[in-house]
TrEMBL record:
Native organism: Lentinula lateritia
UniProt cross-references to InterPro entries, sorted A to Z: ThiF/MoeB/HesA (IPR045886), ThiF_NAD_FAD-bd (IPR000594), Ubiquitin-activating_enz (IPR035985), UBQ/SUMO-activ_enz_E1-like (IPR000011)
Family, per entry: Belongs to the ubiquitin-activating E1 family.
Keyword Nucleus: yes
Pfam family, one: ThiF
Annotated localization: Nucleus
Keyword Protease attached: no
Stated name of the protein: Ubiquitin-like 1-activating enzyme E1A
Domain THIF-type NAD/FAD binding fold: 14-327
Keywords of the record: Nucleus, Ubl conjugation pathway
PANTHER family hit by this protein: SUMO-ACTIVATING ENZYME SUBUNIT 1 (PTHR10953:SF162), UBIQUITIN-ACTIVATING ENZYME E1 (PTHR10953)
Listed pathway(s): Protein modification; protein sumoylation
Signal sequence coordinates: none
Length: 330
């Protein structure tokens, strides 16, 4: 959508946001083109929120058909959509959320091939890839960095979920905590993000015992272990036969990262068992929370009004808690 004065319809629809973030922030959202890859539970919630907030254009990529298991967390789908392409089944319902947003669908994954992806990324403002494997996320993130495009990834594994973002050199406006309460001021902030490849090399040795505990390292390393398992086996764990291997991988990652041994030397076996049994399944409440947080952060980045995630958030549905780790960030 072209920039310019807001129409009466836009002013009415986005009135609350304009008052909250300001007209310039809403203008940035209105002019933004967002690429979202894979329409499962996490992306469903994310898309709902960013479309309602008033982005300009959504490009949605997914080659898969709607399956019965998609009906739980995928509220864009109905029973009679089973067997149809996900993007085809969802397009009209996404458009109905906000007719002011342009929705473009791509019913195949060819766009993720290196040359095609680079060309596509050059035409968007932000990339969000959900429910994807680690090795491809690293590859796609590198392409986004070459094109200087902010990159998000997110997903759920049963009761666990994560969000990673690489926002390059990100500028935003933040309240000046040093100013008097009766004379509020804002200041310009800048933060530099590492690539996913560099984030995965993070060492925890500089954190105190208390700082390490606060980050819930068990859930962090459970997700990182799932990524490494998937890289090795080309699939997620599917049952009891995979518990031992996932436990070995998780504990090796804890050791490699030099985590404070007073906090954790092994990821709890009960967590590994739970993850192994549920990783391939989606739970609607977990998707709603992770997808909601992902959408909120994308909007923060577009609005440049508040600090975004820095840079790896994990959600543990077993405890209902989320924590944010600065992986390879100062």
């Amino acid at each position: 959508m072209a920039s310019g004065e807001f129409t009466e319809e836009e002013q009415g629809r986005y009135d609350r946001q304009i008052r909250l973030w300001g007209i310039e922030a809403q203008q940035r959202m209105r002019n933004a083109t967002i690429l979202v890859v894979r329409l499962r539970g996490t992306a469903t919630e994310t898309i709902k929120n960013i479309v309602l907030a008033g982005i300009g254009k959504l490009i949605l990529v997914d080659a898969d058909d709607v399956k019965e298991e998609d009906l739980g967390a995928g509220f864009f789908f109905r029973d009679d959509d089973v067997g149809k392409k996900r993007v085809d089944a969802a397009k009209a319902r996404i458009e109905n959320l906000n007719p002011l947003v342009t929705v473009e669908t791509v019913p195949n994954f060819n766009v993720l091939n290196n040359q095609n992806f680079e060309s596509t990324v050059n035409g968007v403002d932000l990339v969000c890839i959900t429910e994807w494997d680690r090795d491809d996320l690293v590859r796609l993130n590198i392409i986004c960095r070459r094109s200087r495009k902010p990159f998000y990834s997110g997903g759920t594994y049963g009761l666990l979920g994560y969000i990673f973002c690489d926002l390059l050199d990100h500028n935003y406006i933040s309240p000046d905590r040093s100013s008097p309460k009766d004379v509020p001021k804002s200041i310009q902030m800048k933060v530099s993000y590492p690539s996913l490849q560099d984030a995965l090399r993070h060492r925890w040795s500089l954190l105190s015992k208390r700082q390490t505990k606060e980050l819930n390292p068990a859930s962090v390393f459970a997700i990182l272990a799932l990524w490494r398992f998937q890289s090795i086996q080309k699939r997620l764990p599917i049952g009891a036969q995979d518990v031992g291997e996932l436990q070995q991988i998780a504990d090796a990652l804890v050791s490699e990262a030099d985590v404070n041994k007073q906090v954790i030397t092994t990821v709890p076996h009960s967590l590994i068992e739970s993850v192994t049994m549920t990783a391939v399944h989606e739970f609607s409440p977990v998707c709603a929370i992770v997808g909601g947080l992902l959408a909120q952060d994308i909007l923060k980045t577009l609005a440049a009004r508040e600090p975004p995630i820095a840079n790896f958030l994990t959600f543990d549905g077993n405890t209902g808690g989320a924590s944010v780790c600065k992986l390879s960030m100062s």
